[in-house]
Amino acid sequence: MHSADIDVVFSSQDIVILNKPSGLLMHATQRQEKDTVAAWVAKHYPECVRIGDAGRGGIVHRLDRETSGLVVIARTQEAYNVLKEMFATRTIQKGYYALVWGIPQGDKGVIEKSITAHQGKRRTVEPWSQKEPNTVRDAKTEWRRIMSLGTHYTLLDVAPKTGRMHQIRVHLASIGHPVVCDALYAKKKVCPKELGRLFLHAYRLCIPYKKNTIDIAIPLADDLHRFVESFSP
């Protein structure tokens, strides 16, 4: 996918909400990629270039490269500051669709496991761990079962209550149900050829901004929808 595939799903004087396709980086890495969300924002909303922390370009939060879905962009410094504080205080509600391996026990659950960096990845930390406190971040994820797809997969509605890097992927892997096609946390699983990418989609953002509540929800990305539909009788 390319930045040309980005859709604007909400726009105001203060905020823009985009639907990011899978495969697109938020910002350039050391390889200096030119096709990124940040580059697209700079082209279409040039006022955002100087918004936020250095190099952020108005982007308040991030999605992993292979994750598709909703991203909020601030068009003013005031909006950036407000949104950043709301993410920090967990005021903004987020919803994701995740397809996981296996059938989790029960129809819903809560995962509360701290997360730390480990050899270029993230992993959960047990309460009795001797890890230094400043390297460990608390994390909480709620999930609800939507449907099972055959005997191998389950579609979940996931709500991260904190915003740690790779949180959903790490937490679901920690309970034995990693996200399908997760090359980092489910290496021993074979990614279905019909899918070919991480099945994680940020479908909802609910932002109580000023006197209004911006509540945006989008359907599954087309490729993910086709994979789910392939299991229909």
UniProtKB/TrEMBL annotation:
InterPro entries per the UniProt record, alphabetical: PsdUridine_synth_cat_dom_sf, PsdUridine_synth_RluA-like_CS, PsdUridine_synth_RsuA/RluA, RluA_PseudoU_synthase
CDD domains documented for this protein: PseudoU_synth_RluA_like
Gene3D superfamilies linked to this entry: Pseudouridine synthase (3.30.2350.10)
Domain of life: Bacteria
Signal peptide: none
Domain Pseudouridine synthase RsuA/RluA-like span(s) in chain numbering: 14-174
A molecular function (GO) term: RNA binding
Family membership noted in the UniProt record: Belongs to the pseudouridine synthase RluA family.
PANTHER family: MITOCHONDRIAL RNA PSEUDOURIDINE SYNTHASE, RNA PSEUDOURIDYLATE SYNTHASE DOMAIN-CONTAINING PROTEIN 1
Protein name per Swiss-Prot or TrEMBL: RluA family pseudouridine synthase
